[in-house]
What we know:
This protein has helices at residues 3-13, 31-39, 95-103, 119-135, 152-158, 173-180, 207-218, 222-236, 239-250, and strands at residues 21-23, 42-45, 58-60, 81-86, 108-113, 141-143, 161-164, 185-187. With 251 residues, it is an alpha/beta fold.
Amino acid sequence: MCPIYAVLAAPLARPLGVPVILWFTHWRTSRLLRLAERVSTAVATVERRSFPFASAKVHAIGHGIDLADFHCAQRPERDGLELLSLARTSPAKGLETIVRGVASVPEARLVHHGPSLTEEERRHREELTRLVSALGVADRVEIGDPVPRGAVPALLAHADALVNNMRAGATDKAVYEAAAACLPVLASNPALDGYLPNDLRFARKDPDSLAERIRLLATSNRAALGRELRDRVEREHSVEGWADQIVELAR
């Protein structure tokens, strides 16, 4: 995810026959990224739409998820749905739509965890907090603090579903980690069209679309959905499979 490394390494490595492989999955392009693509032997990304411009060098190899970190937990019986969001408080994450969608489903509760790393993200956190108050759902929606990496499996084990509204052009790793934990994922990203069943997909800027999917999920066999998603991670996104494909690209 640091194109500068490819740019710096290529003049030394390529003349010696050492391949340079760039890993990149994000919607934003730049002159530096285009230069890195030009000097790299190959470019690896999650899915072809998770790289911001067309290139014959791009190879979709999935995310590298270590399934040993995530297990299928028995979710507790309870009234309503406990929803989880894991992301920076960036406008690109579509958190306003998530808050509004959850707010319109009285039986749903949401906890969001994630850092605010820039001034824009800190402003957006404040906007989200004000929105929660204005909608009168502070008892059901929490804009929480970031958590350490080691706490994520426990959060996934407690929730009934992960909600992800990342803009097109990138795929959050949290989606696949949740799936590895047998947790259903509600998401809007077009790059997940072939990965998530239609019943788990919603329109990115449409809170009503999300609310409809939340209500449908409440009556679904969430355990079966979760097991199906974990099977897909094992087939397409395991760290072992990811590493094997990197080796193939380097040959």
